[in-house]
Amino acid sequence: MQGVHQDTTADAETHVDTQAALWLLASLAGFYRQPFDTELVIKRFPPPIDLPTLIEALDALGLKAGLAHWPDGQSSGLSALPLPAVALLPTPAAEATQAGSGEDTNAASPPPPSRIPLTPALIVQHGDDTLAWVKPGQSAPETVALDAARAQAAPVLLLVAQAEPPVSESVSKTASPETQKKPFGFSWFVPELLRHKRIWRDVLLASLAIQLVGLATPLFTQVIIDKVIAHHSESTLIVLGVALVVFMLFTSGMTWLRQYLVLHTGSRIDAVLGEKVLKHLLHLPLPYFEARPTGTLVARLHGVEQLREFICGAAVSLVLDLPFLLIFLAVMFSYSWQLTLIALGILTLIVIASLIMVPIFRERLDKQFLLGARNQAFLTEYLAGMATVKSLQLEPDVGKRYGTYLAQYLSAGFATKQVGNTYNVVANGLEQVMTLSILIVGAWLVMQPEAGMTVGMLVAFQMFASRMSQPLLRLVGLWQEFQQASISVKRLGDILDMPQEPFTLTPQRAAGGEGRIDIRDVGFRYSEQHPWLYRNLSLAIPTGKLTVLMGPSGCGKSTLAKLMQGFYWPQEGQILLDGRDIRQLAANELRATFGVVPQETVLFSGTVYDNLAMAHPHASFEDVIAACKAAEIHEVIEKLPQGYQTEIGERGTGLSGGQRQRIAIARALLKRPKVLIFDEAISNLDQQTAEHFAQTINRLKGKVTMIFITHQVPKSLQVDEVVNMGQHAMQMSLVEEDV
């Protein structure tokens, strides 16, 4: 991508037409001989698609993408354009809507240009002053003049090249230590900060202006005291006074502008980090979440906000101000080396006090964070189980325990603040000692004619000393904030340094397969400290049949279902899906094969339709209705107040258990799975509802392979085979013998 001015920033408000974006991804994947699967892409990047998402999708496909400005009209500028490139054109339908909206004064105002969906055009050839591009739906390139193309398109181009080597969206399990990414730390922010070099240039220029004005103010003050007052020059006093007012206003404006730029850039970096952390967290393996309370994870996510406050605070501006301290120090030495040494000596004492306090502050801050995370985990757990709390009348006990936890947290917070308070008192006291020492020694120097010190020089020196001490004191305070930020970095590193599950957008095998599962000599236990749950387990799940896994609690029925989905990995043996070891499959490819109806159906706040369509974001309304009819829940939904748009509460509040289970079946069917797993799906249903539920399952026979995990088989369930997980031999028996 040489020869073209590049711009790495992408506007999140710029939306791309979904179908056109999928066409572009498929076209570029074909150009670079990359396999492409539309379903995998849609599942990973659900619509609507904006420009940053399109760039992220290209990156996930192993392609390198970036934004650049259009070249000028000269042939040399056009020849520097690497191919293929992508121009972004307004979607014709959106343009027509915007153009027609002006005819009706009562119509809603048209969307701004940045909100009009864009259609990509793939530039495949260019000449001296023309280029050829292909638009969605075209079978042959269209030749247009460069000026006309530039007039039609957005002001930026999307440049695409193949990454060398192709990047992977996740860390491979077999990756060597040399290929592992570096641990997350403050170094992560360096390239993000460098992405905004032009903004930091403006911030540096603003800092330079502020410091130069700060250098002039003490000099003007010296002139007023030594010259103006001595000669009673009122006109000069007015000029200098007006200049000082102008300097003050200029400094205030520059300070506001600098902080605005820092805050704006910090917020953009915060958005990148926040999205990166959540996306990484969502792709971590299930055992990671099982080993950590939800409240603890939420507390760690709050570390993003603390880092933003650190970056968007005085950190960057203070670092930019520090080099100018050398200028102030040189000026102070030119005034009086004696007073300068006094100032440096006391400032050194302040720094020493800070170094003594830092380890104590960090230790107490770490303890405060852990106690805060414990409190959040406690509240999250008990608020989620409020029905159990009320049924067992645990309100007094829960309130008492939380009061104890809160007291411990507040005590730790008080101890942390006391450390900071102690340091502030010491630092402020030493600063006052510096001011008094400079005043007394400076007054003595003024009274010594041979010292050459005037009253104006003493006042100016005092101002210089204050200008130098304030950044150093802020730097020490910033060191305390840095300790808080470093703890947040450490907690976020626990998330970002954890290897993700393997994930791919490039299909690794041909679509199809019957969903046959073969379990061969599998042995599994949760850890080396736990006993074996089973060993030498071998069985086959026939395709298109209904297989029941039975056995007492704790025999590993549900665990076997999780092993099939790759949530856990067996220590021995292998599990084959259509003849292929599931370890060789990416997590999204493997789990696309399965649809699961769990014991506790989890529905989220929103409409019924939202809860159904989340399994297949690109599904049409007709597809959703077909799935609901197959699950025999369509008529029930139609009778709700707003039908499919009826709002339901958290975890499906407002629906019965049987209705939630049928919605779970419809949601699972919408994925079009090859294998449908019912994990204790009837354990919370009464006998009559369970029998109706079984009849619904019977109607799905032959359409999908089904695995039914249960303690007791409903009488009306048409079972093909039963696996008795309670038998020591773990063998499969015929249904007539076991049922």
Automatic annotation (TrEMBL):
Transmembrane in keyword set: yes
Membrane topology of this protein: Multi-pass membrane protein
Tree of life domain: Bacteria
Domain ABC transmembrane type-1: 203-484
GO cellular component: plasma membrane
Transmembrane segments: 203-225, 237-257, 310-333, 339-361
Keyword Transport included in the entry's annotation: yes
One Pfam family here: ABC_tran
Region annotated Disordered, chain positions: 94-115
One example of a Gene Ontology biological process annotation: killing of cells of another organism
ABC transporter domain ranges (all copies): 517-735
InterPro entries hit by this protein: AAA+_ATPase, ABC1_TM_dom, ABC1_TM_sf, ABC_transporter-like_ATP-bd, ABC_transporter-like_CS, P-loop_NTPase, Type_1_exporter
Compartmental location: Cell membrane
Gene Ontology terms for molecular function: ABC-type transporter activity; ATP binding; ATP hydrolysis activity; ATPase-coupled lipid transmembrane transporter activity
UniProt keyword list: ATP-binding, Cell membrane, Cytolysis, Hemolysis, Membrane, Nucleotide-binding, Transmembrane, Transmembrane helix, Transport
Family (UniProt): Belongs to the ABC transporter superfamily. Cyclolysin exporter (TC 3.A.1.109.2) family.
Function description: Involved in the export of calmodulin-sensitive adenylate cyclase-hemolysin (cyclolysin).
Protein's name in the database: Cyclolysin secretion/processing ATP-binding protein CyaB
Organism annotation: Comamonas kerstersii
